Amino acid sequence: MGTNPSGLKGLFKKGVPAQLSPIEGQENLHRTLGLKEFVARLEGRGKVHLLEMGPALQENIDYLGGRSYKVYIQDFFEELGQARREFSGDQEFSFEKFLDRTFPNPDNTFDAVLAWDLFNYLSPKEANTLARRLYLQMKVGGVLLAFFSSSKTIPDSPLVYRIIDTNTLQYDSNPDNQRTAPNFTNNEIVKMMDRFAVVNFYFLRNGVREALLAKK
Amino acid sequence: MWDRKDPRYPSQETTTEPSMDNKTFAGPSDSFVNIGSSLFFKGDIEGTEDLAIEGEIEGKINLKDNNLHLGPKSRIRAEIYAKTVTIEGDVRGDVYASERLIIKKSGRLNGNIVAPRLVLEDGARFKGTIDMEKSVEPPKIGTREAASKSLLGSSDSRDKSTNLELS
To answer: What is the four-CA torsion angle of B26, B28, B29, B30, rounded to 10 degrees?
Structure first.
């Protein structure tokens, strides 16, 4: 794990209640520490090819396109749900085949992946399978940013994160519909992402762990 | 079919786009050539007029320095080149907009985008890549003569690929 940057004092607090109100008085705002390091690590890489695994959002495209990244939009959770709904075969739904269709790009395509909190919504096996696929799709030194909840419950579907600036995200969610959170430990996350090097974990006051990983 | 005054489309003056510059984009105005919802066209469309489409198109659309509006009922399977492209319908294909691409909340695009500016309404669906840095160079599709001959000779466009030139 990398050294925690300065200015984190007070953000680390064990056993904090997991609620999504990270910036007092500013609802639905999330102070991110991982995004700053994520973009810093992409500097000097030439034309950055970035995979955005959430829906297409104006704010994110403005931010990422403004940095001259080529952005690949892949609303993974939406497409997975649709694929599951449309699947009517006798055999079991194949997550692997879904990934084959979803990622037609050649290996070593992406310099960066924004997975947001997607891994919270996959089984440990699916999460590991996706992590391995992303590893193949990424270039050496490429970075992946993922959020993991430490809450007991999480919204029924992934939060939609809008990039306000390098330190601030705004999220949309429906707090009425909740589901049990997988509550991955750091060791479980490291095991899930076994091929990646952990650049840093940021454990935020709101119970969200931001994991910044790099392809070795 | 080629109606320039379709009452379904408000004039440019009455359309409000709060976050946009009305000089460069609004809904299709009276000056737009209109392809109605009953039309299916397979082939290449090239022209120097603004175009609004509600029908079904397969092929290539090249309006170069003009605007293209794809209405809510439009179903497009085409590579698109235009100055400003507005999508309210369903599009599969790459879009090259030299000025701006707008995907309205009812719009769906599955393809790649090359445009210096992209406006996405909440609810718009997009899958593909976005490159805001590349410059847009529209291709040469065909000659005016070839387009005219093709048009004169085609009565059933579902069975034939053809070229259509608007000017």
So the answer is: 170
